[in-house]
């Protein structure tokens, strides 16, 4: 089922857990664990750095505070949600061999529900945001003189994407429950009551596949196809564009290439997981314990890696993001250099102040000595003068 593949760590499919009595435990040597652990650590670091930088760059640069970039920030936040609530637990599983909910009790039950919910929530928000970006580009090209998606509308779309995602991703909060002994608890689905245990999981998966993959990607592909035909069509004979119009056309084409790449990468990243789930439904008897472990791991890893890839697609295709990344990084470099240089200046200034104080003290002592010597000379001369006057 859909949320089995997306549940929390996803390292071991929930369907396998449900039938774990007769299923062999997956065996992984230290080398395999090391490779998988390094791969996930790399993806986690790239995702955290890239998505945080996207948010920071748009926030710091006023010229980049556009509707499209605000929607991109919404996707970046969804990717960060996946990184924290799903990639980190997966990394924990790789090295420990236990899911985070294995502790059992109410904490295990909460983690079982929450981590699966977070994964589904992130994907749903990303898909709805990709649709919103496609419609924004469509209206920007075909109705350039009238802004259909304004900033107010964009804020509403962002809020609606999260609310809708919560509704769509809500069933796992009810169906997922931990079973088994404390320390070895497993996260399984229980659809009864009120749904049919035999068909509910399959129906839910098909509904989510249509709603979150097939339908939105079809709509996005149709919109971008129409836009490309509009932008790349030949000019009419005798029609000439001004330099401003040509620059605008080039910018629109570059943005479109970037967004199309994001959509294609998203579709290819999550497609293997959908294929895996449908294979398990179609061959449930053959794969009662799930597909081969490495195949299960690879399908989820590709989906998670999508969260790390998106920021660098923006950097590759968009000069503003490249410049923004360089600016933020150079400021940090200058900040560290300035702090070290200021520390050096502070130390040197302190030494100079000490030297100046010593010099002033020496000059004061010299002046005091001169005054004392003058006073003694006057005392010596003063009696003799008095005696002569008296005479």
TrEMBL record:
What is the protein name given in its UniProt record? G-protein coupled receptors family 1 profile domain-containing protein
- Which InterPro entries does the UniProt entry name for this protein? GPCR_Rhodpsn (IPR000276), GPCR_Rhodpsn_7TM (IPR017452)
Recorded superkingdom: Eukaryota
Which portions of the chain have biased composition (kind: Basic and acidic residues)? Answer: 365-379
Localization (cell): Membrane
Region (Disordered) residue ranges read: 1-20, 332-351, 365-391
Ranges where the G-protein coupled receptors family 1 profile domain occurs: 50-314
Q: Which UniProt keyword terms apply here? A: G-protein coupled receptor, Membrane, Receptor, Transducer, Transmembrane, Transmembrane helix
Q: Gene3D superfamilies attached here?
A: Rhodopsin 7-helix transmembrane proteins
What species is this protein from? Answer: Porites lobata
- Protein's membrane topology: Multi-pass membrane protein
- Transmembrane segments in this chain: where? 38-58, 70-94, 114-135, 156-174, 204-227, 255-277, 297-317
Family in the record = Belongs to the G-protein coupled receptor 1 family.
